[in-house]
Amino acid sequence: MPDLLSLRDLALRTARSVAPELARRAGGSLNTKTKSSTTDLVTDADLWSESRIAELLHDARPDDAIQCEEGTTVTGTTGIRWVVDPIDGTTNFVYGHPGFSVSIGAELDGEPAIGVILDPILGDEFAAALGHGATRNGTGITVSGATVLSEALVATGFGYQPDRRRRQAEGLVEILPRVRDIRRMGGAALDLASVACGRVDAFFERGLAPWDIAAGVVIVREAGGRVCDLSEGSPTGDLVVAAPEGILSELLFLLRSSGADRT
Q: Which regions of the chain are under pLDDT 70?
């Protein structure tokens, strides 16, 4: 069994190594391209951050696997796979808007085990290792104690394709009147971190990729929350829901009734 705290600390050091440069470049002159749609952006800073992170992880643990959003892939033999989003919330980054982060997760034999999410603008560092709890800037965190969905602040996000975005907006017509309010920050990793520290009570989103949630899943779970899909199974990109136990069932029922399973 690897030392999970050492792996967590490696992820934290690695995220810290790119954060100052990302903070400096945010909102500046960037070489920006689109991927799946005009709202799905990638910049030269994403590529630089990914290259740097992959290099540092590989140098420290050359036999581990690595999967990154922008295509860097390394095969491994240890049972550990690092899953990296070099800039989660790239649109925010391009505009210099808070809400982007560096997300580094690690799986052990396919199960989420390590999570680090670092916010270069606000300086928040969220970290967790399986069985060791979750922290924000070194201090332990827990999810909120919410028990009534109508009093819950709920975060969400929208996909990249226009048709999906329209359907997701239509679903909010049913959801918004039944919660305290909705927040849309533009980065799933920080949304999950926000659930973990109680900055929001819950989060849901469709169409996410493994690198969007790899770190956040561990951080929320270690903070005492649940992360699942609409049927309470393991979260997938199809739909990710994160919440305290006190409102999870009610939130899942609302999402089903609002047609979230069809958006």
A: 35-40, 160-161, 237, 260-263
Q: How far is CA 89 from CA 40, 46, 48, 95, 151, in A?
A: 10, 10, 16, 10, 27
Summarised one tens digit per residue, pLDDT across range 101-135 is 999 999 999 999 999 999 999 999 999 999 999 99
- Tell me the two tokens of residue 227: 């992360």
User: pTM of the prediction?
Assistant: 0.93
Q: Tell me where in the chain the CATH 3.30.540.10 domain(s) lie.
A: 4-140
* Of the options 1.50.10.10, 3.30.565.40, 3.20.20.70, 3.30.540.10, the CATH number for the domain spanning 4-140: 3.30.540.10
> Parallel, antiparallel, or unpaired: how do β-strands 181-183 and 153-156 relate?
parallel
Closest CA to 104 of 135, 66, 73, 132: 66
Contact by Cβ (8 Å): 115, 133: no
Q: Are 41 and 26 in contact (CB under 8 A)?
A: no
